[in-house]
């Protein structure tokens, strides 16, 4: 695939609420190269899931959308039902937070994986063989037995591996992983993240890794996009996160991590409460919570500008760069 794997341009989404439509994405723009892992990070309600769901046109009923999304150069908004089916079943795979909500509880693991593979045109025998092979590749033991088991017989971590196997089975160009480890205990989380990381490198699959955990995302991704109240406020290389983060929100998130302070010292939290696009200020979305807020932040929307190794939308950072 040449060019961008994923290109999102000025995506705006309004969702119906009890008192009319309200904005949940306020102009999201993102690019991913083929095989790249991009971490989409932010607090609850910032719009991470809505961004991922928009890629597959899986938004709630009544959603109003503007902007454009291209996957492998094809505009998702222009796809007919056949094209959309192909996008969802072949080009892009999605892994959700709770594997038990993804896998049909009354079918066996073998049936679940077999169904995904037969949609690709494989015979039953070929589908079963491939399902077993993929499970083994991601470190699932006693594969024959697993294929005959039902979801309730598997731990959450093992079931999430099955979901990842299903995502890999279609050989997609892009995996959207929406908080794939949040529902799991800490040790299992690490295993599942390691599998995703290993497999996406091995197969050169693009990975959009959604998380509220900046450090976790930085450990698996090439770049990090920080989201606040329906906008992207900063994008930077994952390995420069600590050194180069410029946006006050990214800096606050970094200070709010256990391990960012010496043992026994008080952990900072991001001051104020998380906001969604509809309750954040119309100018700089972070103005209400920003420790460095200035008059200009309440007057105009900050432009997204290249600064150092990354890009940032902050009046104060821009002023610093311009005025030295
Ligand atoms: N079905 C829905 N109908 C109306 N509003 C919704 C719906 N789903 C989500 N929202 C709202 O859209 C905004 C963005 O939600 P989204 O789930 O994308 O955030 P998120 O960053 O993924 O948060 P979380 O980490 O909690 O999943 C929130 O204000 C949320 O309340």
Automatic annotation (TrEMBL):
Q: Which CDD domains does its entry note?
A: ABC_NikE_OppD_transporters
Q: Which GO terms describe its biological process?
A: peptide transport
Q: Which InterPro entries match?
A: AAA+_ATPase (IPR003593), ABC_Ni/Peptide_Import (IPR050388), ABC_transporter-like_ATP-bd (IPR003439), Oligopep_ABC_C (IPR013563), P-loop_NTPase (IPR027417)
Superkingdom of the source species: Bacteria
Query: Which keywords, in A-to-Z order, does the entry hold?
Result: ATP-binding, Cell membrane, Membrane, Nucleotide-binding, Transport
Occurrences of domain ABC transporter (ranges): 6-254
- Cell location: Cell membrane
The record's principal subcellular location, in a coarse class, is membrane
State a GO cellular component annotated for this protein.
Answer: plasma membrane
Topology in the membrane?
Answer: Peripheral membrane protein
GO terms for MF: ATP binding; ATP hydrolysis activity
Q: Which family does it belong to?
A: Belongs to the ABC transporter superfamily.
Put simply, this protein is called Oligopeptide/dipeptide ABC transporter, ATP-binding protein, C-terminal domain-containing protein
Q: From what organism does this protein derive?
A: Cryptosporangium aurantiacum
Higher taxonomy: Bacteria, Bacillati, Actinomycetota, Actinomycetes, Cryptosporangiales
């Amino acid at each position: 695939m040449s060019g961008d794997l994923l290109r999102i341009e000025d995506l705006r989404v309004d969702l119906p609420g009890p008192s009319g439509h309200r904005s949940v994405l306020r102009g999201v723009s993102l690019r991913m190269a083929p095989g790249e892992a991009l971490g989409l990070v932010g607090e609850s309600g910032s719009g991470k899931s809505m961004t991922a769901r928009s890629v597959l046109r899986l938004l709630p009923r009544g959603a109003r959308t503007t902007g454009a999304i291209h996957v492998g150069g094809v505009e998702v908004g222009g796809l007919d039902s056949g094209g959309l089916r192909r996008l969802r079943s072949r080009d892009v795979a999605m892994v959700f937070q709770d594997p038990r909500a993804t896998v049909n509880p009354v079918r066996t693991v073998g049936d679940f994986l077999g169904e995904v593979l037969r949609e690709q045109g494989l015979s039953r025998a070929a589908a079963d063989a491939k399902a077993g092979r993929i499970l083994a590749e991601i470190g699932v033991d006693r594969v024959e037995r697993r294929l005959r088991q039902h979801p309730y017989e598997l731990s959450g971590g093992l079931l999430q591996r099955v979901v990842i196997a299903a995502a890999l089975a279609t050989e997609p160009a892009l995996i959207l992983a929406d908080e794939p480890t949040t529902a799991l205990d800490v040790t299992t989380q690490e295993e599942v993240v390691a599998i995703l990381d290993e497999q996406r490198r091995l197969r050169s699959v693009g990975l959009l890794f959604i998380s509220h955990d900046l450090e976790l995302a930085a450990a698996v991704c090439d770049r990090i996009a920080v989201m606040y109240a329906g906008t992207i406020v900063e994008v930077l290389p994952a390995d420069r996160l600590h050194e180069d983060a410029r946006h006050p929100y990214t800096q606050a998130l970094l200070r709010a991590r256990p391990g960012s302070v010496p043992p026994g010292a008080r952990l900072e939290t991001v001051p104020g409460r998380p906001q969604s696009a509809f309750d954040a200020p119309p100018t700089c979305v972070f103005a209400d919570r920003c420790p460095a807020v200035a008059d200009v932040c309440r007057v105009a929307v900050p432009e997204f500008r290249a600064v150092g190794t990354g890009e940032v939308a902050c009046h104060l950072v821009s002023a610093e760069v311009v005025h030295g």
